Every structure is written in structure tokens, then in C-alpha cells.
Amino acid sequence: MLLAIDIGNSNIVMGGYREETLCFVSRFRTDSLRTEFEYAVLIKNILSFYGISPQDITGGIISSVVPPLSDVMKKAVCLVKKVRVLTIGPGMKTGLNIKIDNPGQLGADMLATSVGAMGKYPLPAVVIDLGTATKITVVDKDGCFRGGAIMPGVMISLEALSSSAAQLQKIGLDNAQSVQPIGTNTVDCMKSGIILGNAGMIDGMIARYKKVLGEQVSVVACGGLSSAIIPHCTSHIIMDETLLLDGLRILYQKNTVQK
Q1: Catalytic residue among 6, 109, 240, 246
Q2: Where does residue 164 rank: exposed (0-12), middle (13-18), buried (19+ CB within 10 A)?
């Protein structure tokens, strides 16, 4: 079993693959203060929960936007079982032609979702990742990573709103599906602005991207907050919650010599 681990600013997502089949997905909080031993215990507990023995682990691959945790997590996996663990970084075979000003600046998460989109959908593809930050990236019809946009994430925007305005309370995104454009109380007004406002922004960006590309595109959304926002978009968007993990699996296969 391959362990695919995505270390985000807010959460860590771990998936287990047998060949190309995703057997489980688990999400837990990112904590830079945890040691490799603590993460190893957590990983073993998750595997046990799904009835998987550590001996079943054959390899691992990590994407991380929290650099201090990359090596910690790699050591944690090796404590569970000593296997080859890859970390996304310079020199890795991706199959992408990265056409940005400084390819070394491309985030591991953006790389993984782009590889996932290229492996699963017709190109060109626009990928929308709604996590701590909202990221929109483009892979063109020739498999070139063209760049994209980074915006404040949904929860960052919501927290900034409530912390900067004395009369606006902290709220969650519960009942996101029933939000109405015209709120009749403060909470509903905030939900309308955050949920429908972000949906409108995404629709607007998709229209701009399509105009630049000048052709039909696959639009794919992933990330922990996509289920709250994407259903309110008017554009045709494919929801793919495992896109990043699938990208990690593909990258592992590309960079592992099959014996």
C-alpha cells in the first residue's frame, strides 16, 4: 500500500492506495509542534482503524506547503515501516512542462493537483483548490503548467471579516447549501457574502481563463471547502475531492523504478 500524504497549512490529508485503488482517506489537523514519533503513532492508529497492518505499506509520497513538517512526516512514515518515501520537490519527474517565471516557486500542492488533472481529465484543464488559500491553476492542451491565481481562502476571508468589524460575529459555514442571496439578518448576510461571493468570483475567473485559452476546458475543483462553495457556482465544474492524492499517486509511479 502506498501512503500519499498532503501537508497543508490547516490540515493533513492521508490516503492509502493499493495499485490505483484508493482504500481510505483520513484528515487530521496540521501541528508543527508534533514530533515524528507523535505523527508515527497517529499514522499507526489511522491504519489500525481501517484494519491495515503497517507491514502492508510499500512506499510513501509527501507534498507539503509547511516545510518544517516535510522531514518530520517522512521520518514518521519510516518509523511505521522503513520504506522509500518521496517528497515533492525540484528534480522530480512530473510530465508537466512548467512554464512560469521561476519553476522552483511552484507549490507542491499546485503541482500535485495539476498532475492529477492531467492524468484524469481532457486538457486544457483549470483546477480550483479551495483550502487555506483559494488557488486556480491552468494546464494547457500541450501539458504545460501555465500559472494561475492565489486568493485569500474562504475561512481566512471570514475570519478577517469578523475580527476586523466589531459588530460582526464569528460564524461557520453550516447549512451552506441553503444560503440565500439576500440575507435578512447579520449571519445570513455574512454567509451570502462569503459563500455566494466566492462562488461568483470563481465563476468570473473561469470565464476569464476560458477567454484567454480560447477553447473548451475541463474545470475541476478540490480542497476541503469545495463542497460548500462549488454547488453555488453557475459554471460546469467537476468535483474531485481526491484529485491531489491521485496526483501524488501518479507522481510516485513516475518516479519509482518498477522491478
Answers
A1: 109
A2: exposed
pLDDT digits (tens, 9 = 90+) for 150-209: 999 999 998 998 888 888 888 888 888 888 999 999 999 999 999 999 999 999 999 999
- Name the residue ranges covered by the structural domains of the chain: 2-87, 97-247
Q: Are strands 218-222 and 125-130 parallel, antiparallel or unpaired?
A: parallel
For the record, the C-alpha cell of 193 comes out as 457574502
Report which residue type is found at 118: M
| The pLDDT of residue 39 is above 80 | yes
CATH number among 3.40.50.150, 3.40.50.720, 3.40.50.360, 3.30.420.40, domain 97-247: 3.30.420.40
Known catalytic residue at 109: yes
Judge whether 127 and 136 are in contact, CB under 8 Å. yes
Residues in Cβ contact with 117 at an 8 Å cutoff, skipping those fewer than 6 apart? 123, 125, 127, 139, 218, 220, 243, 247
Cα(196)–Cα(235) distance, rounded to whole angstroms? 13
**Sequence-ordered list of residues with C-beta below 8 angstroms from that of 197, at least 6 positions apart, any chain:** none
State pTM to two decimals: 0.91
Quickly list DSSP for 143-154. Answer: SEEEEEEEEE-H
